[in-house]
Amino acid sequence: MRRELDEDALRHLFDHARESPTAAEVEAVLARLATRRRRRPRPLRLAVAAAVATAAAGVVLVAGGTPRQSRPPSASAAEVLRRAASAPHGPDVLPPGSYAYLRYRYTAAAAGGAPGDHGTFERWVRRDGRGLTVVRHSAAWARAAGDGIERTRTAASTTPFAVGARSWSYRELRRLAGSPRRVDRLVSDAARTLPGGDALSPADRTAYAAYAVLRDVLLAPAPVAVQQRTYLRLVGHPALRLVARTPTAATVAADAGDLRFQLEVDAATGELLSLERRLLRRSRRFPGRPRVVNRIEVVARGITRSPGARP
Amino acid sequence: MLASRRGDRQATEALAARALRLAGGTAAAILRSRDRAGDVAQDVAVEVLSSLDRLRAPAAFDAWVHRIAVRRALKAAARHRREGQAGSSLSLLDEPREPVAAQAGGALAVATRVALADALAELPARQRAALALRYVHDLSDEQIAAALGCRRGTVHALLSRGRAALRTDQRLLAIVDDWEEEPRCAVS
Q1: What is the pLDDT of residues A95-137, one digit of tens each?
Q2: B-contacting residues of A 2-41, CB under 8 Å?
Q3: Quick one: which of A106, A152, A154, B117 has the fewest CB in 10 Å?
Q4: A241 has which bridge partners?
């Protein structure tokens, strides 16, 4: 006998599959609505859009069109990274008992039902991993989550610092700085073990891995030399180019498939100033509209004697 | 709705939640991906709330949301079809910002959602839309016709073809078998 669902069973199936919107989703709508209402009046907006389009067209003309994966890296972008990688920097040893301090501002786009967020991240961490992390979220996030400030005390550990595909002790991080080949291997390992990375070309995987390693190095009290060696891994990326340059900083971008990884470095010291990841276009692999997926802007770094104190 | 127009935050929140629920139910049936359905639901809620002034009859709010949700979700489905099957989600390359919220409703509800999404994915987009409006939102044939912008006869045809496909779907029959303890899950 052929089995069939009756009308009640069909209704019940849809009932079971029904979901209610979360408070975070509602907040995301209200936040977008507020942004929309704050926008300038339409005529002015059109004028601004026209001006931006003209400027963009100018940039494309100057740059000679959209970069392609097959094009060799722009000499100026590679030059910026090479110079940053060899820029002089002071001793960056974290004394025992002291805390490496980092403060950055972040923005993150809404993803997977979670609302977009922006705020400040602060971290104090000792060589053994003990320390404090304080994240101050946006007001919209705070309303959705019920708490706008997250304070997390971290415990001591033998390998407290995650960089690339594994965790390291402080001593191992310092040893990395002395060996460019080890940093190369670190980036290669991160590229090889990248989840979902099979669909990216080897060059794109390396670009993502270099971006991820830079982010991790920024969070861990790793010597600047590790960061500088990572820049050199990016130099060979075929889609690398210089997108902005000021007397004090330069911004370099690498396109990996539909994503763009962008980093801004201090022209004098080679230190990382900001990291940005952007979805360039509507994509088969990544849902959502083109947008900045996330951005980190370093505000302050230093060494303190106690967690909670700012240098 | 009037309170929301006056700037009452609570009323706006309630309307946003209602628009998200209505649009989310329709979009989830039309689009297989929860992420893309969430995107569409959010776009619909923003569009609806930002143009509330244009809605003269507050009683027509739901019908208005349904119409916009169907239009946007069908467009997204067409775009998705053009672009081919989606691969991994962006979250694979994302650093975990916050722990991902547990899926609501437990394992059976999740299994039901997956089975229903798989079964619906094999139907044409307009059949999916008609089924969602009937079974998720309990709309009448006239209301579905208004949301889809077609005649009642067309709705009748869409629903009967869609129902026929779902009734014999082995994945849905297997899910109903898992509900043995539930009295409403009759199988004829």
Answers
A1: 888 999 989 998 887 765 566 788 899 999 999 989 999 989 8
A2: 2-6, 8-14, 16-22, 24-26, 28-30, 32-33, 36-37
A3: A152
A4: A253
Average pLDDT, chain A: 75
Nearest CB partner across the interface for B49, out of A20, A29, A288: A29
A255-292 pLDDT tens trace? 877 888 888 888 777 788 898 888 888 877 667 778 88
| Phi, psi torsion values for B57, nearest 5 degrees | -105, 110
Q: Locate tokens 């059109």: which residue?
A: A46
Chain A residues within an 8 Å CB radius of B33: 287
- Euclidean distance between CA atoms A221 and A100, whole angstroms: 6
Maximum CA extent, chain A: 81
Beta bridge pairs of residue A100: A125, A303
Query: Which among B42, B50, B63, B39 is positioned nearest to B12, based on CA atoms?
Result: B50
* pLDDT of res. A82: 76
Using the Cβ of B72 and the Cβ atoms of chain A, whether some distance falls under 8 Å is answered with no
Enter the tokens of residue A160.
């407290």
Complex ipTM over 0.85: no
B109, amino acid identity: A
Q: In whole numbers, what is the pLDDT of chain B averaged over residues?
A: 75
User: Six-digit token pair at B126?
Assistant: 């307009």
Alpha carbon distance A184, A278 (integer Å) = 25
Task: Judge whether B28 is closer than 8 Å to chain A, CB to CB.
Answer: yes
Percentage of residues in chain B having pLDDT higher than 90: 12
Query: What's the distance, CA A89 to chain centroid?
Result: 24
What average pLDDT does the segment B74-101 reach? 48
Residue A94 has pLDDT above 50, yes or no: yes
C-alpha distance across the termini of chain A, in Å: 78
Interface of B with A in 91-150 (CB under 8 A): 91-95, 97-98, 100-101, 104-105, 108-109, 112-113, 115-117, 131-132, 135-136
Location of structure tokens 């303890």: B181
Strand order in the sheet with A117-125: A149-154, A131-136, A117-125, A99-108, A291-304, A272-279, A259-266, A249-256, A240-245
Counting every residue, how long is chain B?
188
